[in-house]
Amino acid sequence: MVLEKNKIRERAIRSAEDVQSIREKVLEEISANPNEYHEDDIERVRTDDWFVKKFYITRNRNVKPATTSLISSLKWRKSQKVHELKESDLPDVYHRLGSFFVYKTDKEGRKVFYGRCKHYRRNPDLRPIIIQSGIGLGHKIETESPEGIVGIMDFKGLHLTKAFDLEIVRILINTIITHYPLLTRVIYVINLPSILHTFSSMFMKMLSQEAQKRVKFVTEKELQQYIDCDSIPDFLGGTCKQPYKGDDVVPEGSPDLIEYAKRNNWTVKQYQSIYKIAKELADEEGVKPPPPPELYSAYIDNKSSE
Fold this sequence. Notes:
The chain is of the alpha/beta class. About 55% of the residues lie in helices and about 10% in strands.
């Protein structure tokens, strides 16, 4: 018993020393290249042991790879402007569809993040919207839920004929696991279409090794082993009445699709492409669709004539 306590104490001391070593190496790099890092992240490296230790733990308590991983992640956060991302930056119809949202807790008290894969259509202009949303939500969750969350990627209602973008799922899972270590304790993949079961092993190989450790395939019935029925949304057989889609969940200040298109200098063709997908999904979900393409076309015509 005494020997075991001594081992635990020694490991704790070594861990604290390693975390400090990582901090010093990272701060040395930041000092040499300060413009590549965000001031909020620099402060966390200086003051938040757990922020640093998460990279240490997920790199098998090895100082060198943990240091490299943390530096890479800090640069990525600055380049992706994660500190500037706001939920209200995204078009209102995206929120209205309930494509991504954080909901009630699981049986261990951890918040649950839902991603509805049937909304992830293959489209070069839609992909960055969905990925931006996932990254922004992941960053917000990390700040608000240091104890970690549970992720659910739901494939219910997925139509393979509608050009589903599996790459979005891969990017989101790998990004969250890599840049927000230990944030997502487990990711439940649910309602995978039978035709995709054959590709589940192939899909797992698309993920990083760390992400593979977190993914678990379950059925709707099995999901209730981990989350109470009254905390699960209705589309997964739950009885929770908390809204996850519709006007009630749209953040104040979110632009409509036309305003979003203006900010991003979309062509009429780009708008029509996104509108077609958003309108179809809005009809399926029973929510308000985005403004029709004719209105955006009129805006472009007026702008051209000025």
